[in-house]
Design brief:
Elements lengths: L6 H39 L7 H8 L5 H36 L11 H14 L6 H22 L7 H23 L3 H12 L7 H28 L3 H6 L4 H23 L5 H13 L6 H21 L8 H19 L6
Helix pairs in contact: 1-3, 1-12, 2-3, 3-8, 3-10, 3-11, 3-12, 4-5, 4-6, 4-7, 4-10, 5-6, 5-10, 8-10, 11-12, 12-13
Length: 348
């Protein structure tokens, strides 16, 4: 007969694994949070109008000169806050898609969500001649319409999610073709403004936009927390998950809705910034260890990536500000090629 390990030994091994996992989680969270705070501090200090740290602190509390208060509270702070919130939304959305589909290539920009939002925004700009809040609202609606198609595919996610991935890729190509046609028939000035938007740019950000994105994040926070607890159970298989009282189909559909909502809210205000949702989750998983989804940590790393990319877009070339989507594309495209070359795409 094979001797069984004493209960005390088994409990000790489990406790050691849990302690190691907790330590890695704390280290990953600390690294992501530290990087985010450092990038945020730099965003407050650097610029054409230089400010000392003490001047920034005073301006945050409404003290100091009028120009200091305006630059900090009306220019730099809302732009940095928008980068953090949208990066957080994209990082979480990417982690939800990749965990659900067990596919490192799953992200809103590759699944067509960002493409749907872009089509709606470009249509509003070029055909209807509207701008501002109307463009943001139409982009949001376009992203949610893509969600309806993805949800139809999500009914058969038990096959590993290939149906959802293929549907998303097809939608992305279709949206790209529609955008190309709309820009081709538009006037030069209109086409130029549309191209800037679909590249992805933060630019001047009013506080009202920041509040809307923050409200969306707060609204879906309970659902994200539930997803972090339920997705590992769903990954055990539908029969076992059902036996534990979890409805796998409902969980999958809920995750798709939350991920699309986050991606659409971000795209509505800063455009379809690519590769943030694709790159943030693998960084989080690498720090957390094999098997961890790291949804919350992925969101923090998404915020770091987008905020740092926006700083590079603003100040890398003296006197020239480029759209943040250009920077994320320069970083994300090589990563995507590397991922395609070193993995089969459907393995976790």
């Amino acid at each position: 007969m094979t001797a069984l390990a004493p209960p005390t030994t088994a409990h000790g091994a489990v406790a050691e694994v849990r302690l190691h996992t907790r330590r890695r989680s704390l280290l990953a969270t600390a690294a992501a949070t530290g990087g985010l705070l450092a990038a945020f501090a730099i965003a407050m200090l650097v610029g054409d109008y230089a400010l000392e740290p003490w001047a920034v602190v005073r301006a945050l509390f409404g003290d100091g000169s009028r120009i200091d208060v305006f630059v900090v509270n009306q220019v730099r702070l809302p732009r940095a806050a928008m980068a953090v919130l949208c990066g957080l939304a994209l990082g979480i959305a990417g982690a939800l898609f990749q965990t659900l589909l067990r596919n490192p290539l799953a992200s809103p920009d590759l699944l067509g969500v960002s493409g749907g939002a872009s089509v709606a925004a470009v249509w509003t700009t070029l055909i209807l001649g509207l701008s501002g809040a109307a463009v943001a609202a139409s982009a949001f609606v376009g992203g949610m319409l893509v969600a309806a198609v993805l949800l139809l595919a999500a009914r058969r996610l038990a096959d590993g999610g290939y149906r959802l991935v293929l549907a998303g890729v097809g939608i992305a190509f279709l949206c790209s073709a529609v955008i190309g046609y709309l820009i081709k028939r538009a006037q030069v000035t209109q086409a130029q403004s549309a191209l800037v938007w679909i590249t992805g740019s933060i630019g001047a950000t009013p506080w009202t936009d920041v509040v809307v994105v923050a409200a969306v994040l707060l609204l879906v926070a309970p659902a994200v927390w539930a997803a972090t607890r339920l997705l590992p159970i769903v990954e055990l298989g539908d029969p076992l998950a059902s036996g534990l009282g979890v409805r796998p189909v409902a969980v999958r559909i809920g995750v798709v809705v939350v991920a699309v909502l986050l991606a659409a809210a971000s795209t509505a205000f800063i455009g379809p910034v690519g590769f943030v949702a694709l790159c943030a989750p693998p960084i989080a998983r690498a720090l957390l260890g094999r098997g961890a989804s790291g949804i919350a940590v992925s969101g923090v790393f998404g915020a770091v990536i987008l905020l740092v990319s926006d700083l590079i877009a603003q100040y890398a070339i003296p006197g020239v500000a480029v759209p943040v989507g250009v920077v994320t594309g320069l970083v994300g495209a090589p990563y995507l090629l590397w991922l395609l070359a070193t993995s089969k795409g459907h393995r976790w």
